[in-house]
Amino acid sequence: MTHRDMTPRRDQKPRSLATLPRVSTKNRAKLLYQVQYAARNPGKIPGYLRRLSRDLILRARYRDHVSYYRAVMKSDAAKSPEAAVGSKSHERWLALGQMQFDYLIEHGLKPGDRMLEIGCGNLRAGRLFIDYLEPGHYYGIDISPDILLAAQETIVRYGLQDKMPYLTPVSDLRFSFLPDHYFTVVHAHSVFSHSPIEVIDECLAHVGRVMAPDGFFDFTFDRTEGEEHHVLREDFYYRTETLIALAERHGLRARFMEDWEKRPHGQSKIRVTHR
């Protein structure tokens, strides 16, 4: 079965959200939650204060979110590219990349597919996709030039030069420089978890143009069953219904991927296809 066979029929409906795994309703932006969390985790207080200080400085310097988060990535990548993409250790970096790769293989990813990876980072999963796909079939974009330099080092480290991957910095998610209906797989892991709703809206407004008629777009997000909120403009929490409705507003079909919930990863996943 190919991944194209996995797309939902018009009459296929996702299971009720009431049957999905329980997710916290707590608002991590509330002062009470932060005080209680700090009391339980005193060792994390210095790190949070450093993030808070950086947040205040960058907010004053950059008004738009892309410029703000590009500066966040520059700061984090200077210390550790693997930590900058959310991996606390090299072992975790390897494991998270393998998890993403295995999931798409299970859903029918084929060497002939043409993949666009949004927020490719330093190729945590991209190195596996590049190695598996036919030469020239992987296109990675990221808002951070610094993390793309680290991605080039990953290509060299794993000997992937002959696969001819494309790596391109971007300043928005309009994909205006990419061809129509070209990519059979579009993938964004840990991107929307760091994006305000207007950035997600921009992506969903334009991704359908570059996605092949039988293609799909998988993205992860931090899910909440309570009030939607963000912490330090770095971490954003959304309700599933909000993102599904946003995709449908742009003429796309979206469904919650319950089988992803079995993976040891804190984020949830939605798949978007053409109607």
Write up what this structure looks like.
Helix content is 39%, strand content 19%. The protein has 275 residues and is α/β, with parallel strands linked by helices. Strands 1, 2, 3, 4, 5, 6, 7, 8 and 9 form a nine-stranded mixed β-sheet that branches. Helix 8 links the parallel strand 4 and strand 5 (211-223). The radius of gyration is 18 Å and the shape is globular.
- Anisotropy-based shape: globular
State the major sheet.
9 strands, mixed
Number of helices: 9
Q: What fraction of the residues are assigned to beta strands by DSSP?
A: 15-25%
Write the layout of secondary structure elements.
Elements: H1 31-40, H2 45-61, H3 65-79, H4 81-84, H5 90-106, E1 115-118, H6 126-132, E2 138-142, H7 145-157, E3 166-169, E4 183-188, H8 197-210, E5 211-223, E6 229-231, E7 235-238, H9 240-249, E8 252-256, E9 268-274
Parallel strand pairs: 1-2, 1-4, 2-3, 4-5, 5-7
Antiparallel strand pairs: 5-9, 6-7, 8-9
Helix pairs in contact: 3-7
Quick overview of this protein structure:
The chain is built from 9 helices and 9 strands. By secondary structure, it is an alpha/beta fold. Strands 1, 2, 3, 4, 5, 6, 7, 8 and 9 form a 9-stranded mixed β-sheet that branches.
Keywords:
9 helices, 19% strand, disordered N terminus, 39% helix, globular, 9-stranded mixed β-sheet, alpha/beta, 275 residues
